[in-house]
Amino acid sequence: MSAKKTVNLEKALTDLEALVEELEAGDLPLEKAMKKFEEGIKLTRGAQSALKEAEQKVEILLKSAGGETLEDFDVDDA
């Protein structure tokens, strides 16, 4: 994963946190709140895509190094 994509992921997460705070404050008119919500959905999808790409690269690196395969993370077991 390149440094640029990492920065984009970090920025997306920071932007999402700011959006959540704005929406939770409840001070926005409905129209602006809906636009912020849409923006949050786009940021979330971009972040999910970047994380999936990183996971795939890690799997490829592990396979090429003869390492173990990744196991699914189960929230209930954590």
* Total count of strands: 0
Element-level helix/strand string: HH
The percent of residues in helical segments reads over 70%
The proportion of residues in beta strands is under 5%
Main CATH class:
Mainly Alpha
CATH architecture: Orthogonal Bundle
Number of domains: 1
Largest sheet: none
Low-confidence stretches: none
Instruction: Report the average pLDDT across residues.
Output: 82
Question: Would you give the CATH topology?
Answer: Helix Hairpins
Number of DSSP helices?
Answer: 2
CATH superfamily: Exonuclease VII, small subunit
Globular, elongated, flat, extended or rod-shaped: what is the shape? elongated
Over the alpha carbons, how many angstroms does the gyration radius reach? Answer: 17 Å
Q: Give the terminus-to-terminus CA distance.
A: 26 Å
Assembly of the depicted chains = single chain
Structural class of the helices, strands and pairings?
Answer: mainly alpha
Would you kindly provide a written description of the structure presented here, covering whatever features stand out?
With 78 residues, this protein is an all-alpha fold. The chain has one domain (3-65): Exonuclease VII, small subunit (Helix Hairpins). The protein is 74% helix and 0% strand. It has two helices and no strands. The longest helix has 35 residues, at 30-64. The chain is elongated, with a radius of gyration of 17 Å. The relative contact order is 0.12.
